[in-house]
Amino acid sequence: MKDHTHEHSIKKMAEVFKVSRSGYYKWLNKTISPRKQFNHMLVGLIKEFQEKSRFSMGSIKITKKLNEKDFNVNHKRVSRLMKESNLNFKAKKRFKVCTVSGKNDTYSPNILNREFTVSAPNTVWVSDITYLRCEEGWLYLCVIIDLFSRKVVGYSVSETMSVEIVLSSFWNAITIQRPKRGLLFHSDRGTQYCSKKFRNVLKSQKMIQSMSRKGNCWDNACAETFFRSLKVEWFYDEGNLKRKEVKNLIFEYIEIFYNKFRPHYSLGLKTPDEFEKECA
């Protein structure tokens, strides 16, 4: 009725909707309680966070973001508001990871041995390669993650799955992070990591190579988890995209969302950047 007062009289609308005019005016003049006003403001912020994360965040992570903005609320209230406003986390489908190994490849031992908790930055890096479907064909992404902060320290995108994609990510990480000698570099048994070219680069940088056991994805779980998050949070609802669009989305996910905005349970609900700054 309020939205159509410029079109119809209150008397006529009251008759159509079978309500009293006095009841309408009583509702119109009723003040909204401070609690409802506060909830309305929270819903607006929750919507903002969910749109930024493509509806990939649950109530606990949203609560953490609200607390950072000095809104003292608990996750139960946030969960209720998210449910009432249809702003819940959107469940996504799983995906498969494929590692291509060569018959005559030489493998390094699994030195990491699932010790995913690291006490200092740039002492253990993990790396992996995945693929993304585009209109023109496949696009491959290689990432290098620092286990200390779960931060992506290097990445590269290519239309081919050659060793060059790993080398590009590696030199990108080296240039920015400048690690000391003795860093442990862990990956799966992909032919790119087994290649003599990449092994020689690791040797020149005085790094130690570690590889997952055959057919055991849990040995490189942190890298696998990153790819799962990337695909279900950023690409699940997207249609067929061109390679240029996929590259832009990868940049947006890593540089803007993942490293700077996305809280991690393993980091006490801090982002990789926040965790590094606090520990520094």
Overall pLDDT confidence: 88
Give the strand content. Answer: 5-15%
Q: Spans with pLDDT under 50 lasting ≥5 residues?
A: none
- Counted beta strands: 5
What is the CA-based Rg, rounded? 25 Å
- Name the strands of the widest sheet in spatial order: 3-2-1-4-5
Distance, first to last CA: 59 Å
Categorize the overall geometry.
elongated
Order of helix and strand elements from N to C terminus: HHHHHEEEHEHHEHHH
Helix content: 40-55%
How many separate helices? Answer: 11
Q: Major sheet, described briefly?
A: 5 strands, mixed
Structural category: alpha/beta
Quaternary state of the chains? single chain
Brief descriptors of the model:
5-stranded mixed beta sheet; elongated; 280 residues
Protein model, in words:
- It is a single chain.
- The radius of gyration is 25 Å and the shape is elongated.
- With 280 residues, the protein is of the alpha/beta class.
- It has eleven helices and five strands; from the N terminus they run H-H-H-H-H-E-E-E-H-E-H-H-E-H-H-H.
- The chain has a five-stranded mixed beta sheet, sandwiched between helices.
- The mean pLDDT is 88.
- Helices cover 44% and strands 13% of the residues.
